[in-house]
Give the backbone structure.
Amino acid sequence: MAQAIHTRRSVIGGALGLGATAAAARFATAQEGSPEASSAASPAADGEWSFTDDKGVTVTLPSRPERLVIDVNAASPLWDFGVRPVAVFGWLATASGDFGPAGGRIDPEQVEIIGEGEATIDVEALVGLQPDLIITLTFSPDDPLEYWSLAADGPLEQVQQVAPIVAISGVQSSNAGVARFAELAVDLGMDLETPEVTADLERWQASEAAFGTALADKPGISAIFTAPSPDVIYIANPQVAGDLQYYRELGLTIPDVEINPDDGNYWEYASLEEIGKYQTDLLFSSYRGMPVEEFLAIPTVATLPAVTAGQVYTWNQDEVLSYRGIADSLDGVIEAITAADIVTG
């Protein structure tokens, strides 16, 4: 639903995929003639270009798109794979070029910024750039009008008249999301067998293995991931948030949440009194939520087992879906698991 994505934005400000080892195997076999591996490991030939996005929309162009305008959340993983857009935009873009954790390694000196925050995109500036393709995320893949940072009741229709849009799902397991961005990067002409990208992939493999080791040392350790505000504590749904899906697949215990369909499907809107039902060993608080000191001072939060044990950590809800980005996310959770004790049960 369109409402779900709007809810994800307004809260804070806003199919199992390939694992690291499987991804390595996929790209390692690129020269062996596998159609899937070949399409993912080598740039497409000159001529007609086509890509089917996570809405099931196939974009076909006379040639590979060169002038790309990309939402910050999609630009950061593609940047790690070598893609350089002419401009970025989106809920998390800022005119200063400070994109926070969502921006990963994007160099604001190398791109134009044509929209920020509520004014997500400057359509006149977009027209002037003459883009071949626009790339963003989708948090409601089945909704044909839901595109992250391009509200259906705002600029979407005008933007669609400028250039076609490709959307990658933000509600699939993170490892599947990484695979999709890698596939798109290759189709855009990037080489994923460079030493830097190969090193990032190997680091992801190592982090995934270390995650399993950390969990084996703390069997049953549990966590919730929150985005707190003074009146409501938003608790991420592990069946929808891509990083939480992935952590669950790797064995981390994350309790189900209670979703009100009127609020979309990404968050439980828990009152300050309701947070006590989540008795977990670890508590992660989004960098986009209220200051953690204020959060922990709320009386019903202060008595949570994770809080009394000092096991509260920062959560980057805007995980960068590249090899490097997913390794960074894993390493942060590994650090928390390793330092923590099981204080429930």
In short: Confidence is low (pLDDT under 50) at residues 1-18, 25-44. Residues 2-192 form a domain with the Rossmann fold fold (CATH 3.40.50.1980).
